[in-house]
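Per reviewer request, we include the raw input and output of the structure prediction for the construct analysed in the revised manuscript.
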Amino acid sequence: MLMEMARMSVEDGLVMQIHPGSDRNHNKKIYEKYGPDKGCDIPMQTEYTQNLKELLNKYGNDPRLTVIVFTLDETTYSRELAPLAGYYPAMKLGPPWWFHDSIEGMTRFRTMVTETAGIYNTVGFNDDTRAFVSIPARHDLSRRVDANFLATLVARHIVDMDEAKEMIYDLANGLVKKAYKL
């Protein structure tokens, strides 16, 4: 199914997204009382290296494909996802969301993926929440986490201030527009 979705995305230019790693609606009592999508999503162990190998070998170098991978499984960030995004131009890493709407969770993501995948193999911050009133707060938190991360790189003389200014714009706005072809 993923192979066919990738083929169709190459054909029609739509962006493909993969969202594994969540045991949805885990709390039965909350689910029964309030219905689906009320939280209670628990991270699950996921595997990408072998599971995406056929797809990435067939389509991962095709400039017509963009596949954005999201996960809750933090153990895969630096071990699998960052190297895959670094090797295959079509693959981008989606931001840590759902369970990781926290300063520390978002900081772990940025720290664990940037050294290998770089900033430009991520999509900045996008949001698909149905909790519309939370959108400004989530985006503000993301911008603050990214600004702190870049400030650390400037303080350590890894990037200069002009580079950091360009990167923060891209993280807040440019990367998501590019990834979704907006």
